[in-house]
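Q: What does the assembly look like in three dimensions?
Context provided by user:
Components: two
Sequences:
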Amino acid sequence: MHVSEGVLSPPVLAAGAIVTAAGVTVGIRRMKQEGIPKAAVLTSSFFVGSLIQIPAGVASVHLVLNGIMGLFLGWACYPCFLVALALQAVLFQFGGLTTLGVNTFVMAAPAIAFSYLFRGLVAGRGKAAPSIGGFLAGFSSVLGGALLIALLLDLSGEGFLRAGQVVVLAHLPVMVIEGIITGMIVLFIRKVKPEMFEVAHDFEKENI
Amino acid sequence: MISKRKISDLIIVVLLSLLMAPFPPRAARAHRVSVFAYTGEGKVFVEGYFPDGSKAAGAKVEVFDPRGQLVFEGPTDRRGSLSFPVPPVDDLTIFVTAAGGHKSSFALSREKPAGTSDGFAAGHTHDDAGSTGQETHPVVEGAGTEDVRSARDLERTLDRKLEPVMEVLLDIRRKMDRPAMKDVIAGLGYVAGIAGLLFFIQGWRKKRE
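A: Here is the predicted structure of the complete assembly.
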């Protein structure tokens, strides 16, 4: 899920950087002091999660964990992705510094969108709704990221649409695994510490 | 109040970017599809692989000469490797682009052992030109045809003998390309440090308010 240097065209890179700068600003504004340890722990998990490689034929894929980041952090996941991706670029040579903006956007945009879309399910009663909500958020965030990469590669005009389709296919196992992991984590946190969710205020409405 | 908030937000962003500034850009030049290339028996062997050791099958390989002219292009096979006759130029830059926008390069030089972005060296013999029909390296001054032939035979034998050594080098390089534990710990340390910094700034902001 990391696009490397020299693949995307400069306008795409610039657009990615601008969108990410805006997202990071909103994220930092929304991050409260008491939310910093949570953000740091999730940033660390995301940073390390990418080392868990899943062999998938022609492309090398790894856990993404952006669905979890979106559900727990909301907009604050933007600065967290930026920090984690910058560290991955520098320490592991995953992605690159010029593609930092694009890569942050690819991770954060679907994570935030689907956390909003499935927050009702995640905040739902019983066991089924939160686990399904978690699964869908985890699954769709990875799918959204893969589709965005496919789109950006195509926009860069290198005839990459087919390669992009490969990205989506290669990430299918990751989507399923992430869906299951996200569903389980959502269920667990709902039991032990429901206020950890960025969507916690929805729970209050439900009187949980 | 709002302007103060804006200023402190700006400070956070600037500090974050400053944290990233000391790292040289070359550290992030290559993505984690990795390339290794060497020559032997008049061919250039290229292999693309991922950090977990899996092969980059079907990746696009582009080879450029020092003037930036494309001299060879083709896909890697199932084992992530590709070979092609050595082109009649001294320096080659080999780009491998794997699916999903993963790209990396490898520099191969005739005169000196090839260096990569990491400064890793790969051996290079000079019989390549001969095999492409462009003999540029006279073996010994005044040497007869017999000597030239035996010298070529010797080099071919050497290439064959060196093949396992190259395999070992490639294996070592694959291991080197995997993220090291110290990098993981360094990353976690950075995250903790940045969180501490945010705490400090927000505490300072609250105090001011």
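Follow-up: Chain B touches chain A through 47 residues (CB under 8 Å).
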